[in-house]
Amino acid sequence: MTSGAAGQALDVAVFGAGRIGRIHAANLARQPGVRLKYVIDVNREAAQALAAQHGAQVAGIDDAFGDASIGATVICSSTDTHSELIMRSAAAGKHIFCEKPVDLAIGRARECADAVARAGVVAMIGFQRRYDPTFAALKQRLDAGEIGTPEMLVVTSRDPGAPPVEYIKHSGGIFKDMLIHDFDIFRWILDDEADTVHATGSCLSDPAIAEAGDIDATAVTIRTKRGRLCQINTARRAAYGYDQRFEVLGSAGMLQAGNMRPTEVVAWSKTSVAQDVPEAFFLERYRAAYASEMAHFHEAVTQGKPVRTTVADGLKALELAEAAALSWREGRVVKVGA
Amino acid sequence: MTSGAAGQALDVAVFGAGRIGRIHAANLARQPGVRLKYVIDVNREAAQALAAQHGAQVAGIDDAFGDASIGATVICSSTDTHSELIMRSAAAGKHIFCEKPVDLAIGRARECADAVARAGVVAMIGFQRRYDPTFAALKQRLDAGEIGTPEMLVVTSRDPGAPPVEYIKHSGGIFKDMLIHDFDIFRWILDDEADTVHATGSCLSDPAIAEAGDIDATAVTIRTKRGRLCQINTARRAAYGYDQRFEVLGSAGMLQAGNMRPTEVVAWSKTSVAQDVPEAFFLERYRAAYASEMAHFHEAVTQGKPVRTTVADGLKALELAEAAALSWREGRVVKVGA
Amino acid sequence: MTSGAAGQALDVAVFGAGRIGRIHAANLARQPGVRLKYVIDVNREAAQALAAQHGAQVAGIDDAFGDASIGATVICSSTDTHSELIMRSAAAGKHIFCEKPVDLAIGRARECADAVARAGVVAMIGFQRRYDPTFAALKQRLDAGEIGTPEMLVVTSRDPGAPPVEYIKHSGGIFKDMLIHDFDIFRWILDDEADTVHATGSCLSDPAIAEAGDIDATAVTIRTKRGRLCQINTARRAAYGYDQRFEVLGSAGMLQAGNMRPTEVVAWSKTSVAQDVPEAFFLERYRAAYASEMAHFHEAVTQGKPVRTTVADGLKALELAEAAALSWREGRVVKVGA
Amino acid sequence: MTSGAAGQALDVAVFGAGRIGRIHAANLARQPGVRLKYVIDVNREAAQALAAQHGAQVAGIDDAFGDASIGATVICSSTDTHSELIMRSAAAGKHIFCEKPVDLAIGRARECADAVARAGVVAMIGFQRRYDPTFAALKQRLDAGEIGTPEMLVVTSRDPGAPPVEYIKHSGGIFKDMLIHDFDIFRWILDDEADTVHATGSCLSDPAIAEAGDIDATAVTIRTKRGRLCQINTARRAAYGYDQRFEVLGSAGMLQAGNMRPTEVVAWSKTSVAQDVPEAFFLERYRAAYASEMAHFHEAVTQGKPVRTTVADGLKALELAEAAALSWREGRVVKVGA
């Protein structure tokens, strides 16, 4: 299927009817001409609920790929299914939206990148942060030269709490699971590639995470090929909630992207002047980003606009995650791409 | 028509296909079971555009009232049509959502209040600010006793620019057109009624407004029956945009409701540390409020929940607007309800 | 004594060794060439403590006025002594710094203004807020045209708690005791004079204040001769501390003067993102203002620079306080100067 | 000389009459009983100016050490003189306040630490940041357990512009010259010692700095013996001024220390809502810290209170600076104390 005019009919199959699948489905269904035709999930109940909401059918994987009318797939199933569904979508000439990561194995992710390139389909990775209004406005002002040449990036990225250890065991580790987004932010904001990576970390919130071979707090430093510096600090647990900030120091000033709050109430008491804590977690914090992301995917598919978060971007972020994990494990600076 | 279960079918007629009509229509159409059946507007093109968007029909006033299947009317037409459409809706037993003001004439507004009371229909006035997340959260915390007894309210309410003088001539004056919202905020937040009102003002932005017999900046003070104090300052033109703030001083602290910004970017330059100006105007600032308001109307109609912004509230705000206008014209303190 | 060169010797007598007397004495003593020679206070212990700190002598009133070497008097004694000390200072040709108010009786204050004018001495009233770095910077930017023509002023002025009722009984009432500063801010910032004043108020914190014939919360509105608007809200008790803010709306923007905080610590907890409450009270909030004020007095005396807060300013503020008190008592709008 | 009672006489010799020497001299002279007796500087004009201001004499080094009445030395001369003056002060039994660093050579700094320990004199290093009201309040709240166990520290430390290259050539490099303060903050806030250090950096503002063998932007990561993480980002040039912030993530929340602004004016224009840029540079930013620091030194000397910033602290910070410089030069992680 080739890209066409806005508002043209687009039939879609959604893989994965979990939390993020439901959000993507709703955002995509809102685009003109889009019809959710199939919902595929091993959890039949979840699939039925989502299908019912959008007048879609619950289906199997083969149904979706066997139906030539399906123009695009939305892949929100578990990580270990991503690459296969990407490969099959590409083979069937269907446009692809896939949640991060492409795959936990870089080799497999490269095969996906090659496959979608050969197939000539639109393929977009769900790095939703690039579509966040605050982050996108900052990037636009940076590109417009407001602070001169960017020189340093400091990223703060903290979750409100660690996921269950069972999840962590299959997550690919904190660098691939959590920092993958921060590595993408780094590449996007500094518009540069890593030369060296240093990562260290600790397990501070729950010993079970250490027992699972992982850490829950990291400190990463990247020096780029052009000599720019980036520091990323992350934690699985910030008691005050979801903390998503970054700041770029440029030769002529600084741009900061702050957290969003649910309300703008300020409370003055005997002891403090207090505002709301940040939006609770990614579903709230990135609500507008998810909507904008899916509108962008729709535009790419129907109007042929270039995709802003490609499989190649997914691959690059994954390479950084691997380099960081290696740096952490071996306690040394890692040269990227060497 | 009586109220029923959530999700039950509700056919709706929308009067007025202008800016605010389109917003209310979209927000109502999103509720489960709601169908926009008729769009009525003297501007046929606007009516057709809105109808097309929601699969509704363009119709005449009599079509709407003659169709027994219509359960509710949404009145967003020009102010001089409000009271007649309310009266006819009440007579036809249809639930009513009506934009503010009920009518520019208090007597006529009272007739409307009586009519909806007699008819027993749900009747809701579009004081959307009460549904704003920030304002609603503040009210909830106030009611929970967070700052003790409320004692003083300071309201800042400024538009980004004056409307055309032609509009102002038919607006009923700044107190009925613009401060009507602030008078409602006053009653809602302090949970009290005015004892005396003092208002003064000036025409500072455009002499044509003075020639039309109106002013563009006001300073209003209300003392309540319980001795609480309220000051409202308004301006038709704030160069920096739409400014919607208030603060409540209580015996144990203060709660402030601040503006919302489009993004959380902070720019550090040689000369300043700068944030975004506030959301541009009411459509942006109260986007969430409009959505929440229509969900509330839908709940009231389908689940029988009491309406929070009644025709009586509209009447009270109108009385305050009249008292303020009188105070301004005669340069004296006005006793309310005397 | 005539004004002379910076650094020249200036011998000073300080009347009143209380809290504010000690601050003024220390700030003045810091100026080059200044010597505190006499401290006069009915409280001999306080006088001795202050005198000891600065190598001064405890003296009686006549000692100070009889000593021709005394170039300036600093009057920080109780309000009922101000006018006499001003008159005697003027008669003796001594420069005068006097705390507000000049006198509680306007007639007496006028006599003071006349006397200092005839004597040709430097006479400065302690409206320290004009010397506050934040307020002064705002005024300078306003005068430089940053927000165009000023149109509206909103002043928030709240104390952390009411003084003892005994104090209130002799204070001249809230308008002369507390709002006198706000009336001066109004004249200074808008650079305009009042045409009409409306004031209302309540006693909300302590019934004993009402029994003493006073109120503890006020809402004042001033319309200026040029049609500009000013609203002042005050309270004797703000549970969160000393609240000193104002904002000026101009034709091209707005300037706000905010509170100062003891530290810039921000605490992120499970429930809020919290900053410090404002500086505790006037001694902390206006520390820099007091220092700058006395440096200004010294400059005026030794270099002949014009005084920025004159007895005439004190008189004008007093007239506004009287007009406001009249408006409050009679429940009507008062024409100023009529 | 042994420590004694508050207010007792203390004669002082000040070495170095430059910018910081003048500040320390003025702050120390303000303490009760303190007399500046000698000012020593190779720049005779500067020495004379400072001496005149405090009624001191210009003297030579030997004069100061030969005068048994001198109880304390304040060492603000160039870095290469610090260690010798410390050694001579210790030998002469005089208490010592010395600006950072102790010496650029660790061996020499160790000799100083040993010498003051043997001599039993009070010896304090000028890490003024610990005395900053914001930083000190944060530390106190941290120690009180407000955010549980500290886990991560992020330090932002940026100057408004690079010093002359001539200065840089003799500065010992950015890690010893600029980050020495940040290394002290790290040890103080996390109350822990470094296990490993990684540092990287670039020369981004001026190639002449690179030619001098130095860099102007760094990114340092420290992992502590207890597994806590610290990231420090620095730059010689922040176009918006002097930027001194840090934040501590703890198990139960976060504490941030923000910049201070000259005023609390907020300007609302068509394009932004803007506050002041931070205080210009260290003299303004740390004005209160310098005053508090010298009061602390005076207390230590006269009341025998333990010094909070010891020569040992200076030594530890220097070791971190050396480790960081090694890490940067060799592109590897450095084990501290190994």
UniProtKB/TrEMBL annotation, chains A, B, C, D:
<dbReference type="InterPro" id="IPR030827">
    <property type="entry name" value="Myo_inos_IolG"/>
</dbReference>
<dbReference type="Pfam" id="PF02894">
    <property type="entry name" value="GFO_IDH_MocA_C"/>
</dbReference>
<dbReference type="InterPro" id="IPR004104">
    <property type="entry name" value="Gfo/Idh/MocA-like_OxRdtase_C"/>
</dbReference>
<keyword id="KW-0560">Oxidoreductase</keyword>
<protein>
    <submittedName>
        <fullName>Myo-inositol 2-dehydrogenase</fullName>
    </submittedName>
</protein>
<dbReference type="InterPro" id="IPR036291">
    <property type="entry name" value="NAD(P)-bd_dom_sf"/>
</dbReference>
<feature type="domain" description="Gfo/Idh/MocA-like oxidoreductase C-terminal">
    <location>
        <begin position="139"/>
        <end position="336"/>
    </location>
</feature>
<feature type="domain" description="Gfo/Idh/MocA-like oxidoreductase N-terminal">
    <location>
        <begin position="11"/>
        <end position="127"/>
    </location>
</feature>
<dbReference type="Pfam" id="PF01408">
    <property type="entry name" value="GFO_IDH_MocA"/>
</dbReference>
<comment type="similarity">
    <text>Belongs to the Gfo/Idh/MocA family.</text>
</comment>
<dbReference type="InterPro" id="IPR000683">
    <property type="entry name" value="Gfo/Idh/MocA-like_OxRdtase_N"/>
</dbReference>
